[in-house]
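Ticket #4471: structure output looks truncated?

Reporter: J.K.
Steps to reproduce: submitted the chain below (294 residues) through the standard prediction queue, then opened the result file.
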Amino acid sequence: MEYTMDAKTPSRQIDYGATALFALTLAVVLIAVPAFGYFVGYTWLDWTMLLLLYYVTGIGITVGYHRLLSHRSFECRPWVKVALLIAGGWAMENSAYKWCADHVRHHARCDKDEDPYNATRGFWYSHLTWIFYKRQAELNEKYEVQFRKDPLVMWQYRYYMPIVLSGFAVPFLVGYVYNGWMSGLGCFLLAGVARTFLVLNSTFCINSICHLWGEQPHTGGDSSRDNWWISLVTFGEGYHNYHHAHQRDYRNGPRWYNFDPSKWLIYSLSVMGVASNLCRVQPERVRYQEPANS
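Returned output as attached by the reporter:
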């Protein structure tokens, strides 16, 4: 199957705010982060906070934004939902309200012109440059309605900027308490800015790599692919072909040996009694189809 882009697709306006923000983040990562490491050096605390916040914010996206809100793969207590919304906000990938509407549209219109990160437009578009264009409100309206009914999602939407800023303030304050201003700056650069850059790109890999390279054992209906090694940096999101075949399954890696920390956390929350109604597709229901490019 060959995917093409409609030549009649209207031109989109540049989002100068998003472009400038990413450019600033990239500049700090390429210049300030290594310069501080060379002239001052990072401590064990900086690296520990980097790993901890990478996990927390990554899980906020995969478990919170993606599996809980976008696909309703499970239900949970309100305080768990709030924690996931805050963690997802710290990833600086937009509010859950906008992120989830875009994602639902991606599944509904995958590989079509209305797909916000359409992989048929190439690696760089699906990986990154799609964020440099303003969201097309007329395309998202019907996908946003369901999220406007969720008071917690709208709470996060209203307070999104303070939540994002708090995600940078936390590593700075931890470093400052540990050893003063320079330690705070180091923790801010490594566990704040560099961590954000890494989490952004790990998520982008799902939009790009998992739609361009890999296997299609579950469905050939679109360009989605399984890439197990992407799961290593996205907490299980690399089994993307399975996910497109069975979107409401709380597991992206359905087998016990699939590396999917997100499903392990969701299951653990259910064992603790704070999550319920986990959606699950039985293995015998999986339909293996011919790949789209066969």
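Triage note (M.O.): checked the attachment and the full token line is present. Residues 117 and 126 are 5 Å apart (CA to CA).
Status: closed, working as intended.
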